[in-house]
Amino acid sequence: MYRFFWRVVKAEALKKHRTTFHSKLVYFSMLIWPILTFAVAYFTYKPFKLSAGAEKVGYLNDNNLVIFILIGYIAHMFFHSLVQSAWGFSSERFWGTLELIYLSPASRLAFVLGNAISSLFENVWLFIIFAIMMFQFYGELYFPGIGLTVIGTITLIIPAIAWGMFLNALFLFSRDTRILFTILEEPMELFGGVKLPVAIFPLWAKIISYIFPLTYSIKILRRIFLKGEELVQLLPILALISLVTLIMIIITILLLKSGEKYAKKTGNMALF
Amino acid sequence: MRTRILYATFKRNFIIQRRAYPLEFFIGKILSAFYTVLTAYFMYNLLFKGQLNDSFSEFTGTSDYMSYVILGGGIYLFVVGTFLNVSRSLITEMRTGTIDSLMIAPFDRVGYFFGNMLQQTFTTSMEFLLAIIISIPFGINLTGINIPATILAFLISLVAYFGMSLILAAGMLYFRDTYISQNTVFLAILLLCGITYPIEYLPQWVQYISHIIPVTTSLNMIRNSVILGMGIPEQLNNFGYLMILAILYSVIGFKLLKRIEKIALENNLA
User: Fold this and answer.
1) Min CA distance, A6 vs chain B (Å)?
2) B123-141: per-residue pLDDT in tens?
3) If 0-12 CB within 10 Å is exposed, 13-18 middle and 19+ buried, where does residue A90 land?
4) Which InterPro entries does the entry link to (chain B) (predicted)?
């Protein structure tokens, strides 16, 4: 049973890879777009006196601004690629392949997991290489040791995959995915704290911020790599991100079950 | 003949927009502009407490950052709107299967593209007005506006955006792609044309590229007219330069399209 689950994950990941990498143009979306977006964010800071910002966010200065934004964009790439992929995933309904998937005995959870994993690693590797080069160039990144580096990476990858699974399930049963895309894509960049620290937001904006798991991941990464915090200081936020991830996985399972139940009863694949 | 084609395209596009895309595109674009303004507002008021570098007013002639960004975001709406509707027009015909009948009919290209352009200008103007109204609480200041200069700057800008969109249309038709080309162009404009910051912050060699993209001069003129209240005589050089760019882009765009249309049609029918 367990082996069968991973076979479905692998098969879906491979299918996703083959449908995405059919053209060299795909490298534009993987590398050129994130670099352009990152450059826009960097130059957006230019009109301001950074010393004034340091009053609110103590660790922000001229030397680590690039690192501050890069950390935000790396994390954003992880989550963003999954919003994009979930949007593409909804085309299973238009192609008529969703019915076939439901006729097969494949685990639904394995299906959405395979798709999420594939999109994640396909989309981020090129930008990660770019980011490493930038880190080397600017050389202001604090190395917290292997343990905390691994923890930081895990707190980025696992919530991102859970977010991807949740979105895949959501987009799978939605009649109108465009509006979901509008609601989820752009606000994530602003409210997730990619360009700006969430700490400066007013209360209403902070409440929206904490809906997006990206906010927690960015916070943890900046606290590890910019502020140099220890594991003990990070424990509360690590517990919080684990809880958020767990809730997302539970909602995904419930969505998949209720969507399929509804489809079986009514013959309609659009739950909402 | 030309006017009839223009009117027919205008009317058809309205019907398509009203029936096929009720509100999503409209809401999506308004939200985009809103997030741009909100980001600028948080940055300016909450993070930096209104403290700008002296270089900003040196480059722009104003210290009104919010009006600067709001106008940039609003004009960006127009650029995106023109590209989405005019550039994609022929490839959309191809995708919906109407390009063959369109090409067989003795349709006039100029009337067809102007029809597309006018329809989108009307829709985007509504979005732009709404975006400006939403931006009032965020601090846009229109008290110093020079109305004749603003209107003229805006009209020449529309011709320039139209020319740019024709070139993009040719590219889209040739590569049969809209997703990669349009998004790359949108991001390049955001980076190079001074939508949220003056281009003088970019490296010198990049600024040369910025100056040959009409959006840069267009934004300068509109900001000069709206924020600084500059009149037409004071901006004659800019007006002339943008006019030349607009004509150049339009001529190249039409010529390119004419050539690529043939290739695309042959491939499509093959």
Assistant:
1) 33
2) 888 888 888 888 888 888 8
3) buried
4) ABC2_TM (IPR013525), ABC2_TM_bact-type (IPR047817), ABC_2_transport (IPR000412), Nod_factor_ABC_transporter (IPR051784)
